Amino acid sequence: MRETFVATTTALLDEDPRTALVLADISADVFRPALRRHPDRALNVGIREQLMVGVGGGLALTGMRPYLHSYAPFLIDRAYEQIKLDLGHQDAGAVLVSIGGSYDAAAAGYTHQSPGDVALLDTLDGWTVQVPGHRDEVPAMLREAARHDDRVYIRLGAQENTRAYPDGAKLRVLKRGGPLVLAVGPMLDPVLAATRDLDVTVAYTNTPRPLDTEGVRLLAEAEVIVVEPYLAGTSARLVSEALSGLPHRALHLGVARAEVRDYGTWQDHARAHGLDEAGLRRSLEKFLGDA
Amino acid sequence: MTVTTLRRLTGDEKHAPSAHSTLDVLRVLYERVLRVTPETADEPDRDRFLLSKGHGPAAYYAVLADRGFIPEEWLDRMGQWHSPLGTHPDRVLIPGVEIGTGSLGHGLGLAVGTALGLRAQGLVHSRMFVLLGDAELDEGSNHEAIAYAAAVQLPITAIVIDNQSATHGWPSYQPETLAGSSAGIPARFPGWTVSVVDGHDHDEIERGLLVRTERPHLVVATVEAKWS
């Protein structure tokens, strides 16, 4: 996904003089051609994430469309107050593109991981959050974001589904049956595998914010299970609002709060958080069996 | 004129203008330096002034009223319900205010980004000024912006009002400049050109603000110590 991001953003910089790119060293090597070609609009501020977001806010105040990029823990967690004040409070927008969300940087440890990025943005107003499940979903997100000035977060992951669903902004039903299982981004393939022989409805979205609450209300009957690739329960409030007034049971699966002090690969961490096929199957059977 | 406006805003005599560390710098900026008026406040090529030190904006509001950006009546209701004027300024609510500030250490980064945006769009005649307090320099975010502005030779002007209010000061470690506990402020802006001026002397302030080099420029405006 990062390669797709680099190629599309490099092309956008060539095509649209309003666009700008601000880096804080991360990915500066792969953006070298863009940095060389557009020295006024493609900027690397060094290892200075607070400044990266402040610069993004300033560029936006002059009418430009800044794309900011780093590891999620540095882009979102570290620069949270700049995101809140230098963008939101100024009524300015930017496109934030992260890598290294939840546990993609498994071997690097917790300092390089951000399971809470989407929850942090949920404390703020007006953020569109996109979690592509496949690299081919990325270019349209980046290009659409160039056409307006709103605040957009695009969370690129190491984990991908086998196929792309470019129109994933609303809930897209992939399997019809009983209780709704909502899979966000790269959670789709493990969800489909875990529910292969279960009587459930499976819906996909790559745009959890704004959440398609109308879709949730239409598809969820008495039971809904949300599987998100970031902090478990991040969407619980919105799902609860969507189903307000309807008696329902809900299960929210995702990354646990407790730090997994271990390394390995993202597959190892998915297993540790119960987000692989077997773990999802266990959680689903228990929840549905308890009904 | 600003004297009466300021008195109107603060409502009593004890807040005489001399007690407002930023007033003289703000007056010189708006009366002599900045190419911006209420009519040009949205022009892309206007000069920008960013008040990073959003604390104590009374003098700022008084100058904005005096220059016609906001009605003087607004000054009577600062901080009240439905007043556009808070105890920190909000750009969305106040004409002529470029950024909303309050939390310290945000203005310099926004100034760097704004200056880069102007440069990228060829608006090279727009000048960028940003005002900070010496205590605000304690925030680490400033130092990200200070170093980067020097590295890319960004022609912005930062004004630091030095009323020696930083808890641990900004001491100089060079014996010949042990003038005060904040004498080391210029040393924290490596790669910048520097003017140190009397923060109440309008001609000195103006000379400092008019300096234009190929590098970022620092104006340290010295005023009486906050706790003196």
Please tell me about this protein's structure.
Chain A: Residues 1-164 form the Transketolase-like pyrimidine-binding domain. Chain A: GO terms for molecular function: magnesium ion binding. Chain A: Pfam families: Transket_pyr. Chain A: This is Transketolase. The complex is a heterodimer of chains A (291) and B (228). Helices cover 36% and strands 20% of the residues of chain A. Chain A is built from 12 helices and 11 strands. Chain A is globular and about 60 Å long. Chain B has 228 residues and is an alpha/beta fold. The longest helix of chain B has 14 residues, at 107-120. Chain B has a single domain, classed as Rossmann fold. In chain B, helix 2 runs parallel beside helix 3 (58-66), helix 2 (23-33) packs across helix 6 and helix 4 runs parallel beside helix 5. At the A-B interface, helix 3 and helix 5 of A face helix 4 and helix 5 of B.
Task: Provide the descriptors you would attach to this structure in a database record.
heterodimer, A: 291 residues, alpha/beta, six-stranded parallel β-sheet, five-stranded mixed β-sheet, 11 strands, globular, B: 228 residues, Rossmann fold, five-stranded parallel β-sheet, 6 helices, 28% helix, 12% strand, Transketolase_N (chain B), Transketolase (chain B)
Work out the helicity level of chain B: 25-40%
> Which architecture of chain B does the CATH hierarchy give at level 2?
3-Layer(aba) Sandwich
> What is the share of helical residues of chain A?
25-40%
Q: Give average pLDDT of chain A, whole number.
A: 97
Q: Strand content of the residues of chain B, in percent? A: 5-15%
What's the quaternary structure here? heterodimer
- CATH topology-level name of the largest domain in chain A: Rossmann fold
The CATH superfamily of chain B bears the name Thiamin diphosphate (ThDP)-binding fold, Pyr/PP domains
H/E element string of chain B?
Answer: HHEHHEHEEHE
Protein name (chain A): Transketolase
Organism (chain A): Actinoplanes regularis
InterPro entries (chain A): PDH/Transketolase, THDP-binding, Transketo_C/PFOR_II, Transketolase-like_Pyr-bd
Pfam families (chain A): Transket_pyr
